[in-house]
Every structure is written in C-alpha cells, then in structure tokens.
Design goal:
By secondary structure, the protein is an alpha/beta fold. The chain has helices at residues 8-16, 55-67, 77-83, 101-111, 126-139, 143-164, 188-194, 213-219, 233-239, 247-250, 253-257, 265-270, 276-287, and strands at residues 3-5, 23-27, 41-45, 73-75, 87-90, 117-120, 170-178, 181-183, 197-199, 209-210, 223-226, 260-263, 300-302. The chain has two domains: 3-146, Rossmann fold; 168-302, Rossmann fold (3-Layer(aba) Sandwich). It starts with a strand and ends in a 7-residue tail after the last strand.
Length: 309
C-alpha cells in the first residue's frame, strides 16, 4: 500500500501502526517520528516564511488569505501523480491547520490520473481522536495493532482520571494564541476536565475562539497553560513572558501565584494523534503537581513574569 499523509497527526498514526515503510509522501510539518522528515514533501505553506513573524502578523496573514478565499497550502500535484498513492489521509477539522479534503479531491480531479482513496480525519474530542486511530487502522489493514494502541492509551487516560477524581477542582485557562487571544478548543477542554481541572471559556468539541482579556480576568483562572498552535516549547517560552505586560493577564490568580505554564503545543496538544495522551499527562502535572509525576524535559516550563525592580 502507498500512503500519502497531508497532516502531521495522520503521519504519527501511520507510524504508530507500523506502516512507516508504506508512507510515500508527507507535509512540510511532519517531523515526528524523525524518520518522517526523510519522506517526499507533497504539501507546503502558502504563508510568508523566512522572516520571523509575531503572533499578530501570523494571524493577519492567515485572515487576509482566507478573506480573499486564497489557499493556505500548496499541494505538489505533479509529485502526487508520480507517487501514485493508494490512500491519501487529510482532514476537514480546520482549514488553518491543514488542507481541507475538498481541496485535495478537486486537485486530484484536475490530475485525472490517480484513483487514490481520500480519507478525511475529523476528530473533535479526545475520545474521537482514539476512535480515529481505530478507523485508520481498519482502513489500512492494521485493525489489531490499532486496537492494542488505543487500549494502552485509554489505560493511561483512565489512570489520570482515577487520580484526579480524588483531587480538588482547579480553574484552568488554556491559551491557544496570544494576539489576538484564542481559548483552546476541540479536545483540550476535555483534557482539562480529565486531569481534575475546571475548563474556562470553552467546551469540549467546540473550536477555539477569540476571547477578550477582560473575559480571561473575569474567569479568575488559577492555572494558565500557554499552548500556541504550531509552536514548540522554545517558541512558546520566548513569547509567553510578554503576556505579563497585559494588565488583565498579570492580575489573574494564576499570574500572581506563579502558575503560568508554557508547553510544547505542536507535539502534545495541537495534533490529534497518539501523543495527545502525553499532553494529558503534562497537563495533569501542571494542574496538580503534588499528585502527578513531573514530565520529561522539553515538554513544559514555568513562565515567570517581570521581576519587580
């Protein structure tokens, strides 16, 4: 079987099912496992690159292209023709995160030479992410491997839930973007609830949305987790201290008490794949460090505000 993956989470699922050798094409963002970076890249960003952009500049560039109804991604159609895949894995969950399946199907129609089956993966909750793994395993001929993987992931989730059930509920705000501020959505609210948190300003299964800093202040979060979509820990750490320059943010209980955290969102929160469960364990420690083991280095760090002079 020849598989092309048009989103990083699908690439991770393919490798987790032991089908890495069958993967013939990936996206420019597919970097896990490291072997994925050796595969031909069939999709690239259409956004400006090469110069560092601020969060607001990135948001403005995305909105401008969407307002013009211009694509955010460029599909290497001729390369896909050469690769001749049997299956193409894509999504319709978020047109900012990856190319929607409709665009993929139209591109294939233009080629007119591929009979690839296009499979769209669209989970909105953590449970749906696990179900997606089972579905992909069945469609790619690895149903037993998928069931075993999901069983092990569910066991880890339940272990966290059991411990969290004995602990006090903590008010948690998950910030997915800083300028403008977005509250995290989809599977993240459910992850917060699973680790014993009271998720603020959004509900499980609903998309991320813009919020006002006054809303954040009024919600009085005890813990704030900064998980900017598409950022690794180092990038989040660099941007996070500037949040304390926002009066409403700096006045939250989380900021005053030193409970603001930056995480590797790309690896553990943004991609709906197996590593979301690693993210769940990271989140559990951020919310209840007294009850859960500290995560391995490189996944989370405390964000300090400016020191008083």
């Amino acid at each position: 079987m020849r598989i092309v993956s048009l989103l990083p989470s699908a690439t991770e699922i393919v490798y987790a099912l032991g089908l890495g050798d069958d993967l013939v094409g990936v996206t420019y963002e597919c970097d896990y496992p490291p072997e994925a970076t050796t595969k031909p890249v069939v999709i690239r960003t259409a956004l400006p690159h090469g110069l560092p952009l601020t969060a607001r500049e990135i948001d403005a560039a995305v909105r401008e292209r969407m307002d013009r109804k211009e694509p955010l991604y460029v599909l290497e159609k001729e390369l896909i023709r050469e690769l001749d895949p049997d299956v193409i894995l894509t999504q319709d969950l978020c047109r900012v995160c990856a190319m929607p399946s409709g665009q993929v199907e139209r591109a294939l129609e233009e080629l007119g030479t591929t009979d690839a089956e296009v499979i769209s993966l669209d989970p909105h909750t953590l449970d749906e992410v696990l179900e997606t793994i089972v579905v992909v395993g069945r469609l790619l001929g690895r149903p037993e491997r998928a069931e075993e993987l999901v069983s092990s992931l569910r066991a880890r989730i339940e272990a966290v839930r059991r411990t969290a059930a004995r602990l006090p509920s903590i008010r948690v705000f998950c910030l997915e973007w800083s300028d403008p501020p977005f509250v995290a959505g989809h599977w993240v609210p459910g992850m917060v609830e699973a680790v014993g948190g009271q998720n603020l300003l959004n509900e499980e299964g609903k998309p991320s949305r813009v919020v006002g800093w006054h809303e954040v202040a009024q919600a009085t979060p005890e813990v704030i987790v900064f998980m900017p979509c598409g950022y690794y820990l180092e990038e989040a750490e660099e941007e996070a201290p500037r949040l304390f320059e926002i009066p409403e943010f700096a006045d939250t209980p989380a900021a005053r008490e030193g409970n603001v955290w930056a995480v590797d969102a790309t690896s553990y929160f943004s991609r709906p794949g197996p590593r979301l469960v690693d993210g769940l364990e990271v989140l559990a420690w951020a919310v209840h460090p007294e009850a859960f083991p500290e995560p391995p280095p490189g996944r989370i760090s405390r964000v300090e505000g400016p020191r008083p002079r």
